[in-house]
Amino acid sequence: MSVLTLHHNFADQMPGFYVPWEREGFSDPTLIYFNDALAIELGLDPEKLKEKGAQLFSGNVLPEGAQPIAQVYAGHQFGGFSPQLGDGRAAMLGEVVDPQGQAWDLALKGSGRTVFSRGGDGRAAVAPVLREVLISHAMHHLGIPTTRALAAVATGEFVRREQMLPGAVLARTAASHIRVGTFSYFAAKGQAAELKQLMDYSISRHAPDAEKAEIPALALLDATSLKQAQLIAHWMSVGFIHGVMNTDNTTLSGETIDYGPCAFMDRFDPRTVYSSIDRQSRYAYGNQPGIGQWNLSRFAETLLFLVDSEQDKAVELATATLRAYSAHYGAAWLERFGAKVGIQASEEDRPLIQAYLDLLELHKVDFTQGFRRLSAVLRSGDVAVCGLFPSEASFAGWSEVWMERLQGDPDEIADALDRVNPIYIARNHRVEAALTAATGGDLGPFEELMEVLADPFTQREGLEDYEGPAPSEFDAEYQTFCGT
Ligand code: AMP
Ligand code: MG
Fold first, then answer.
1. Which of 35, 245, 446, 478 is the most exposed place for a label (fewest CB within 10 A)?
2. pTM summary value
3. Alpha carbon nearest to ligand 1 atom 12, residue
4. Is 141 in the pocket of ligand 1 (CB under 6 A)?
5. Under a CB-based contact definition with an 8 Å cutoff, are residues 348 and 248 in contact?
């Protein structure tokens, strides 16, 4: 039996949605990361895969059954429509079907030029590839839906950016690579038959219940809006800032995709932006929920003719469905943030939660520690244990109301808090240090950080240095780059 056998259902069923991909090849690839746990989940043999990993995950050798393609899509980027994007540096090799029968796309990123590359070189550098490995790993272990990294390969070649940098290829899995922007591409060209086909394919893969609905297009819109609302609420609950929430990075699967200029927030401030290209702060932490709805509106526009043949009626129905996004988001937010303060929250609890966020903002407290310390306060029964605010009094007022609201055994609540409030996140200064070392050929800090992030909720001895934020000088100047 071969080490890796792929299916090619998308390639078979969806001609017209891609162009065949041809490899450029790399002369001297080496495997620098492999995700054993993911391989096992996929029903694959990690040891055998690793033996062939450098060739397979650089794209030099194709797995059995692979039918590599570059997918076409469009996207609203920072609010403006780009009618033609597509996989300019990626290749979808095919699907892995796991032991439960679920299909996962296997794609390479940084694997060379395609017809969609425009002026780009189709390549990626080691640092952005390992950044995606690190952050997607952190997200997965925080329980957040995400594409995942199966492997990373150093190509042995250099890519030209501001300076020459060592190149790499990422092998990632995804529930699919269908994006809102995939729909927009065909909508902009007025290709109704392709849109219907894409809708049917998306329904069968991501929202099977919608097939039986009275208006499948509306049911798909609602299912996607629920997934995006839940995803973004989950991001918000860990202080994650995606950084480039364009519609080509908004998936139908509800997975986080495309780890470019993303970062976890340190000191709580809803206006936080790290991305160097986001000059208008469009994708600031606090804007993410609203942007989610904006992106879904762009999705709805592509589906209108499938909702109803009468335009006015279609708009009315789609608008009502989009309005439900706010309710989906509100419910998901309440559940996540309620759990972060140890309560099963209902609407009346919103002010209590918001008051704590306001307090964190006012005193510039680290978001992650601000929530993590609550369990320690409960266990000790002493507000001084918090130790994050300038004075005990600033926390004590809120904590008195909070403790009144708690129901049940404090130790049990504290344990529950520790299961939802991470102690270790991918701290920006740690990520940068790991990537700088990796670019210089030292994978040690990267590997150590991966270990830490594999279990973000359990405090471990010797990892104290991973708990806190960077010195404030670092955070004030920290910027992330797209890495393209
Ligand atoms: P992203 O910012 O990664 O979502 O990419 C936006 C678009 O630019 C997509 O169509 C990518 O395929 C394309 N792109 C990004 N980097 C490169 C590159 N190095 N070479 C070719 N195309 C690229
Ligand atoms: Mg993208």
1. 478
2. 0.98
3. 88
4. no
5. no
